[in-house]
Amino acid sequence: MGTLQEPSALTARLQNTLMSYHSLDENEWRVAKKSVGDTVFSQYKSQGMVDDNPNRIVDYIRPGPYRLDWDSLMTAMDIIENLDQGCCVMRYTTAGQLWNIIAPREFIDFSYTTDYQDGLLSCGISVEHEEQHQSYVRGFNHPCGWFCVPTPDSTTTPAQSLLTGYIQTDLRGMIPQSAVDTAMASTLINFYTDLRRALKKA
Length: 202
Fold this sequence. Notes:
Protein name: START domain-containing protein
Strand content: 35-45%
InterPro entries: StarD4, START-like_dom_sf, START_lipid-bd_dom
Pfam families: START
GO molecular function, one term: cholesterol binding
Order of helices and strands: HEEEHHEEEEEEEEEH
Number of helices: 4
Organism: Oncorhynchus mykiss
Number of strands: 12
Helix content: 25-40%
């Protein structure tokens, strides 16, 4: 687990880990769930096209004023500490899932956003920070992130970007793995649906 005393080490670790995920051949990922235009792979990779430019898309994903307005899974989010440019520590909570078989969770994450090719990478990892709220199970995020890059024909109107996510979450608690897999696949499909709806409304 990372510590708040070493943000530069955390950013390097995050980028290196996410780049290693992103360099894997698609054949090395097993499809877990498909929706129109979106695919969720096991362990958990997701991919889909989003009609907008990377800057605006990532603004809606990273910690900030937009996320709570559209993400149906997230119930609260607070930026605990602003660090270097593009870095912060955030606390957020998630709703119960699968008829509350998976109870609400709390996460404390270090978040980092940086340039990637012609787009952006927004990533995070759980860190030790403050005591756990007794009403929540404290989950743990291994290196996670979202790559957002414009498509080759992104000069068209509207602009279009490829959004690829890698979510390595340990929900903790006594939860059957099959329930975790089902919840994660549905959550990621809903993430794309909710994000597109929010961007279209704005």
